[in-house]
Amino acid sequence: MPLREFLGWKRPLLELAADWLWQRREELPHLLVVVPTAQSGRLLREALAERGACLAPRVQTPDAFFRVPPDPQIATPLEERYAWIESLRRANSSDLPSLFPLEPVERSFTWAAGVSDQLLAVWDSLSESSKTFEDARRESPEPERWQDIARLQRSAMARLSKWGRQPRAEAKARAAMNPALPPGVGEIVIIGVPEPAPLAVLAWQKLAEEQFSTRVLIHAPADLADMFDDWGRPDPRHWTDPKAAPVPVAREQIHLTADAPELAKQVIRLCADKSSTEVTIGLCDPAFGPAIETAFGEAGWKAWNPEGEAAGRPLANLLRGIAALGRPRPPAWPEVTAILRNPLLATVPGQQDLFAALSLLDLLEKDYLPDSLPRLEEVLPRKSSHPGFVPLKKLVRQVREWQEQFASGGVWHAIQTWIQSMPADDGAEGGLYQLLSAAIPRIQLLEESARLEDPGDAVELALTGSETLRSLSGRDDSVLDLPGWLELSFEKPGLMILGGMHDGSVPDGRMDDAFLPDGVREKLELRNAKTRHARDAFLLRSFAESRPLEIVVAKVDPQGEPRRPSRLLLAASGRDLAERVKQLAGQPPAGSKRLSAWERGPWTLHFDEAAKGYLEGDRKLSPSALRDYLHCPFRFYLRRLLKWDRYEADKLEMNPRDFGNICHRAFEAMGNDETMKHTTEARELADFLIAHVDRELHWFYGSTLSLPLMVQREAAISRLQRFAEKEVEDHIAGWVIDAVEVPVGSELLPWSFEGQPVGMQIDRIDRHPSLGYRVLDYKSSARSDSPESAHLRTFSKRRRIYGNTLVTGGRSKEKVWKNVQLPLYAAYVMQRYGLTSPPAVGYVNLPATLNEIGFDMWHAFDASLLNSALEWTRGAIAALHAGVHWPPVELTSQESRIDDFADLAPDGFEAAVSGSLIEHFKATAERYDAERSAAV
After folding, report:
1. CA–CA dist 123, 147 (Å, integer)
2. What is the pTM (predicted TM-score) of this model?
3. Residue 877 to residue 897: CA distance in whole angstroms
């Protein structure tokens, strides 16, 4: 058996281990040191080098004792995965009734790849403890299910045997049973490995049986010897018992915060007055890594997470997308646009041109909803004057070339050619190019034997194992590492801060799964929740006993999901336990009580540019601009002068504006057709309108409509049919369309209001032989709205007023104008036709509820309302000329739900903006209000 040595824990393990080895420096060349991770080995070698060691010992991780040796007869992960995929795809549903009680919708390669990955992970868990599917069947409450899995395994193994390959699990077991050591090794020293893989322990046992010298160094005092087994593993019977292993952390060392930004701030505060060499930041919960990295970057300490990001993700996504284009079934549009937006394609048109190309792609998606690459090529020439036209055309041509390469057969060769065309370094230092290159011969063999026909399937196989690769970008210029939980034992002395010590991360909550629940794991003596709890309880205590320790936890994660503090922090009893629960379940001392997915935090939108005037030059004022200004002068500035607008990501159907425009153009065609203007046949008019809508849909969205567009077409048809009935009733009543889409403010119809040029488009002007004129505006929103409610709102001190308030009758509250569209239309029509009184005004509502479709007139509209609206128009124009864009209106909760800018300032714009422009706005508004008060 091994010789155990207890190093105590008065100092960190790295110091103790380095000292122990340094005392035996003459023996170092003959020692084989085992540490838990590769990063731990690097840190240990650095510590020995600092002590002057010239010849470091060999250092390796436990998995080296059962690593699969290079052997062409042993299956690669790619081949093993493919064998399982083929077995799944070719199995009859009657063969696996318990595993698949319901037949899969489609036994596709993608489905089989996903299931095979799950089953291979289960096999790995079993085989690392020398267990089999048959062992799992005996211990599981679902033996029939495991019998099906074993049957599937035999099928996969038969395929491997047919190909002359042996399973990797068997090769690992053989390696563990017959451990081979490097030449010259005289002793194995296992340091700080609290949870080695069972196969590694098996290998060590075999060496011990052969009388090979093995030592286990344990970071704990000798009086706790009974709490560890022979190989230094913490005994769950002791370490999961709060009385035997109480949490060694005082409540003052635990800091509760609201969310990720607050957690990162607290970590920064705890680092005050320390250099990067005096502190270790442990990243317990990976979800909080970006927030901590960002916070340290802003503080001037560039941090690096050894876990890194998935290596070569843009490259792998690009490869998958191009291969999907070569499949018989066209890929979905999101897959196509993901290719065109891949950052690696910047080398095709150039970085600046890429921005223009993607801007045009956004515009084409917004206007035409392309659903395929051919459709994109069809609508692209319609924007030939756009600066992104040529670069986007280059991108599409490059993607087409790649598509042809992958679709023409010989995917292995296409991958090889494609790698050569990619940048030499995409930030994927984890070795994605090497992984792909190593996979090419295997893919070639499968293709040549006609076992792979789909290019997407071939690429998916070639990327086997890529999900575990990590990028090392940023390591060289960082000053602070963010090691994970298992790396912390070998970190330098000094303060240790554990960021995000949450349940599910420490202890790891991924041990329990659908195939191997924790109860079955215990029976099979696999690594389980209890062994993981014991491991982490020991590690926490070793940290707390050997160095200053601070722990920071959060109430919610970066996505706003609740997080619970680690159960290890509750390892107490009696009053102490009650106080800990009260502390960790309470509100953060300085945190926000509003625990949203994100909050603005300390940043502000900074504006330092010169103020822009809206009514400068020959700009015409529109009713919609006045509506925006009356709503909020600051939001008006963002939208109308800075051109800020909400981006519609992943648009799949017409938005309300698109839907309305298509209906509007049909109504315009009706108003310009002499027959339709007078028809008394509702069916004839409906057919006319529907035919026009179909032509519009074909022009914008192609001959084959997507399902959402088909649904919208049916909605439009239903509304138009009902509208035709109402329109014909008005024809019979004597109303005739006089003009449609009147371009007021154009060269042919110039118009100004008290010297201010106005630009607007009146949907429709009707005349009646005895009732005179009326002005109509089409409204196609899902819910109908009356003209009065769309133009007037109840007076509120939250908003600036630009004229007198009015009372609309009865016991109504004071009203103010929020829109002056119909009054401005009426003023123009009065002037155009020489009327002495205002024309009737109203809406043609086309809501989703068919019985609400029809003409909704503003019966109370008269000269007094018109004059009031024009007074407000004068006031708004004067304020615009004065440059008044402050203060931002504090919206009601209902208004905020539909406000395009609400997400920018969850606590209001006044607190969220800063800069010289904002100060200018404030001064201008103060001066303007003072002048108005003096005038009154």
Report:
1. 14
2. 0.74
3. 29
